[in-house]
Design a protein that fits this description.
By secondary structure, this protein is α/β, with parallel strands linked by helices. It has three domains: 186 residues, 3-Layer(bba) Sandwich (FAD/NAD(P)-binding domain), CATH 3.50.50.60; 194 residues, FAD/NAD(P)-binding domain (3-Layer(bba) Sandwich), CATH 3.50.50.60; 168 residues, no CATH class. It has 16 helices and 23 strands. The longest helix is centred in the middle third of the chain and has 24 residues. Belongs to the lysine N(6)-hydroxylase/L-ornithine N(5)-oxygenase family. One of its GO terms (biological process) is intracellular iron ion homeostasis. GO terms for molecular function: monooxygenase activity.
């Protein structure tokens, strides 16, 4: 039975999330309307020149936040300030980073600073300023609500039959559920921390957490390990051992910060004894566990940065699956498992200072001038098991949470030697998974059938409408061949860790024309989903060439994805570099000829 709704109950666009991606959309909408008339985006004033009248974004945070768990002192960005929310598509916009500096009365000081790279705290403040300004000008944002369900429904809107997206959210503070209806749905949920399957036995402990929540978790985790109080400050009665897993920017920043934090935790000074592992028994220990042999700086060269140019998205999208995979592989050093050279230099200097102080202490056989922390980089480390020390079970955590330690078993990737290390705290700087969209849509019988989603693991492929489905079939064949016939682990690490099978396939494969899909009945076509150049999810029937969605009546609601399309739109898809231009591309797909 069709739901009976009035036009006031239906939004033209509902957005999941209010991070940089959807913020860019909100700004692009505002700029298309009269910026002096913010009421136009709330439906109070009709604008006959555009179909969009009512927009609403739903955000789980209680206010705008951008990576709040990693706003460390002196944390560095890796992007030019001109790649802000708007400049590449509209340098005259009032939402530029330059206008933010001007409105904050810091433009002259910024120029005198002599750098084009903002620090992370300042850029976070810029994003917050833009978000607040966007809301002030009329964009609706419902903070403190978590989207828990999405479905497609039939509705009668003021006497007109429509198909709508039904979005159900829960208010975090009260548990109340709310339902909204939209003609189009923007999914920009951001990445979900990748806690690594191997950590499943211990991942629910307070002392094991992802770098995404580092700032909010580290102090409590250290406090959990402290059993004495000195001058009102919790202190450990023994050296602490902390593991940082990962080799990217976040991992290096966390290693530096936690080392400095441990330096403030004094320990009793025993007589000199050389530890068997090279760590004096009075020292705290921070181990970076990385799969590579060493830490690497990112490729920020001018020519490499051209991969993030807007026109390269067109080129990437039109390539074959094999070519796209090779392209991503070549440019991994621009973003994956790499760090800012300045941050690496800071870590090296910190570790060198430790060695200097250790040498002085060893020569004098005294701890007086020794460093209180030893930082190690354990390269070629493959974590093969994680458990509680002495076999403690997850059920024991309630009563012994503060005293639990973890046994992390490492296999050296070159010599195959297996070693177990004990840690009090484990911090996972292991990137993010980006499959929340498919998990959510799969829960809807209507939407999962409409888009052909029958698994949380979905491979997105470019939709090329001129091919009438045939070219998409060949890309599906090629993808299936790459995934199943020839597959090998990549060993790649990434701070953004897109959940992408293209990073786990070899560099060569036979042509798609050599594959007969009938010989691979265990590869369901429903796990292959098309995505348009304008970031629109393509219905299964349209992708396979059996119909065109634009000819459906009543008009079907459309779903758009942002920051989850590395396979189809290139390695820069999760980065800030593409936010401004992508906003126009998404809205241009929604309303051809208007943007």
């Amino acid at each position: 039975m069709a739901a009976q709704l009035s036009s006031e109950q239906v939004y033209d666009v509902v957005g999941l999330g209010y991070g940089p991606a959807n913020l860019g959309i909100g700004i692009a909408l505002l700029e298309k309307f009269n910026l002096e008339s913010p009421e136009k985006l709330t439906g109070l004033v009709e604008n006959p020149s555009l179909p969009t009248k009512r927009v609403c974004f739903i955000e789980s945070y209680d206010e705008f936040k951008w990576h709040p768990g990693m706003l460390l002192p002196d944390a560095r960005m890796q992007v030019n300030f001109l790649k802000d929310l708007v400049t590449l598509r509209n340098p005259m916009s009032p939402f530029t980073f330059v206008n933010y500096l001007h409105s904050s009365d810091r433009l002259v000081q910024w120029i005198n600073r002599g750098s084009v790279i903002p620090n992370r705290k300042e850029f976070s403040d810029y994003l917050s300023w833009a978000a607040e300004e966007c809301i002030r000008r009329g964009v609706q944002v419902k903070f403190g609500e978590v989207v828990i369900g999405v479905d497609k429904i039939q509705a009668n809107v003021d006497g007109t039959a429509e198909h709508l997206v039904e979005v159900i959210s829960k208010v975090r503070a009260t548990g109340e559920t709310r339902t909204r209806y939209g003609r189009d749905f923007l999914m920009s949920p951001g990445g979900a921390p990748d806690m690594l399957p191997v950590m499943s036995m211990v991942k629910d402990h307070d002392n094991i957490f992802h770098s995404a929540s580092y700032i909010h978790s580290i102090s409590q985790a250290i406090s959990n390990c402290c059993s004495v109080v000195i001058d009102g400050v919790p202190m450990p009665n023994r050296p602490l051992r902390i593991a940082v897993v990962g080799s990217g920017q976040s991992a290096v920043e966390v290693a530096i910060h936690v080392t400095n934090k441990l330096n403030a935790l004094a320990l009793p000074t025993p007589a000199w004894v050389e530890g068997s592992n090279g760590v004096a028994p009075h020292q705290h220990q921070v181990d970076m566990l990385i799969r590579k042999g060493s830490l690497h700086s990112f490729d920020g060269s001018k020519f490499a940065n051209e991969v993030f140019d807007p026109e390269n998205t067109d080129l990437f999208f039109a390539r074959s699956a094999n070519s796209r995979r090779k392209n991503i592989g070549e440019y991994l050093p621009t973003n994956y498992g790499v760090a800012n050279p300045g941050t690496l230099e800071a870590l090296f200097e910190l570790m060198y200072s430790q060695k200097t102080e250790e040498g002085t202490a060893r020569r004098h056989r005294s701890f007086r001038n020794s460093c209180g922390v030893k930082t190690n980089i354990r390269g070629f480390s493959d974590i093969i098991n994680a458990d509680f020390v002495h076999g403690a079970s997850a059920g024991d955590m309630v009563t012994s949470r503060k005293q639990r330690t973890f046994a992390i078993t490492i296999r050296h990737m070159l010599d195959e030697i297996i070693t177990a290390y004990e840690y009090d705290i484990v911090i996972l700087a292991t990137g993010y998974k980006r499959n929340q969209w498919s998990t959510m849509l799969r829960k809807s019988e209507e939407l999962s059938k409409y888009y052909g989603i029958e698994s949380d693991k979905v491979d997105l492929l470019p939709y090329l409408p001129s091919s009438k489905g045939s070219n998409n079939y060949m890309q599906h064949a090629e993808k299936a061949l790459e995934r199943i016939v020839i597959s090998a682990p990549s060993g790649n690490e990434s701070d953004s860790a897109s959940d992408s099978s293209v990073l786990s396939t070899p560099h060569t494969s036979p042509g798609a024309s050599m594959l007969d899909l009938s010989q691979l009945p265990h590869i369901p076509k429903s796990n292959i989903v098309g995505l348009s150049r304008g970031y629109r999810l393509v219905p299964k029937g349209e992708f396979e060439g059996s119909f065109e969605a634009v000819h459906q009546s009543p008009r079907e609601p459309r779903i758009y994805l942002q920051s989850m399309e590395e396979n189809t739109h290139g390695i820069g898809d999760t980065l800030l570099s593409v936010v401004s231009v992508r906003a126009t591309e998404v809205l241009g797909d929604m309303y051809p000829g208007e943007y």
